[in-house]
Amino acid sequence: MSNKIGIIGDGHVGSTVAHQLLISGLVDDLVLIDVNEAKVTADELDFQDAMANLKHHTNIVINDYSALKDADIIISAFGNISLEAGGERFAELNYNRERIGDIAASIKKSGFDGILVAITNPVDAITNMYQELTGLPKKHVIGTGTLLDTSRMKRAVGSRLNVDPRSVEGFNLGEHGNSQFTAWSTVKVLEQPITELVKDKPWKLEDLNDEIKFGGQTVYKGKQYTNYGIAAAVTRLVETIESDARTELPVSNYQEKYGTYLSYPAIVGRDGIVQQVELALTDEEEKLLAKSAETIKEKSK
Length: 301
Fold this sequence. Notes:
- Helix content is about 40%, strand content about 20%.
- By secondary structure, it is of the alpha/beta class.
- The radius of gyration is 19 Å and the shape is globular.
- The protein starts with a strand and ends with a helix.
């Protein structure tokens, strides 16, 4: 069974995702779409030049929406990150809202009926729009959400405790943006709740909040974009979908309770969001989640 993936938006993020998919062998047929014809043509040739030295072969098509008809997954990576210079992802909303209508119409016209993964910011609002505009089932439209924020949390916690970030459990929830938060009640390291582990430490959990929340801005200030962290998150999500792994991931999925897409753990597999998860959050965390949901809805207007 071959895997066909479309990527809409061949900028810093889209091209890095494409590269990771090519070298990982997760894609047999790749459709790359971008309004910058010269850039997408150059990347296609560059990838072809790499092919003789790669372990896997991939067939590549550029700027053909009709080729998305039988794609398993479409990844939306278009946007203009320079608008986020102030650290506010909703700064991209108007720019991306002007473009998503035509893109969603082209996806719908192609006959695509697979899983749509949104990276485009503000990702929760954009994921909402994609679902409404394409008419795809809610469970088949997923935003990368706080999968990256959660990774940043694991990196920060792992660094403080000198353990591999993959040995840190737990989630960041809500908006992939300034109202997201670490649900510390869910975080475990060395089989112990983080809240217990830090009692004898000279630092507090609150000391990590800004590092986690604004980690992306640190990267942005250094190179004016972010790409590797989010590309790794997308690649993991793609692999989870393709292999029907049914992994619990903090992705942006539709939460009936809040009437919006936001990040909350869900079981992800070949059919998209295959099961909702219920966390035992503290009262304070429940309030933060409700506040984050309101922020998404209010800013999306």
